[in-house]
Amino acid sequence: MLIIAHRGASGHFPENTLLSFEEAIKTGAKAIELDIHACKTGELVVIHDDTVNRTTNKKGNIDNYSLLDLNKLNAGKNEKIPSLLEVLNLVNSRAKINIELKGKGTGKKLAAFLTDYCKAHNIKHSNFYISSFRHNELKTFHHLAPDFPIGILYHFYPRHFVMLAKKLKAHSINVSFSALSSTLVNKIHSHNLEVWVYTVNTIEQYHKVERLGVDAVFTNFPKLFVESRKK
Ligand code: G3P
Ligand code: MG
Question: Which domains does the chain show, CATH number per domain?
Answer without folding.
Answer: 2-51+82-230 (3.20.20.190)
